[in-house]
# Entry
Amino acid sequence: TTNIDIKLQKAIMYIRAHLFCKISLPQLSKVASLSSSHLSHLFKEHFEVGPIAYHRRCRLQAAAEQLSKTSRSIQEIAYDFGFENALNFSRAFNEAFNTSPKFYRKT
# Structure
């Protein structure tokens, strides 16, 4: 394992530990001890998206799990995962999964 792999892993662990929070690129760069541009490059190289988009993807995946395993309202789940309202959450969810949160829950 290289030093870069360890730093990238630190960023990933931080993202997964902070799914309920908004995070910034400078904040994440500090955690990983890398410049913002280097961290962005590594994420795009490994995940095809930047670190903030990766964080959003992780939040949406965790929200999808909540939709399928709980009966909590879509609005509650949206707020829990850092979305300002259910409409923004639904748009992001639909973009990520090509279906609405309501329909996803039914399947």
Q: What stands out?
A: The longest helix spans residues 51-69.
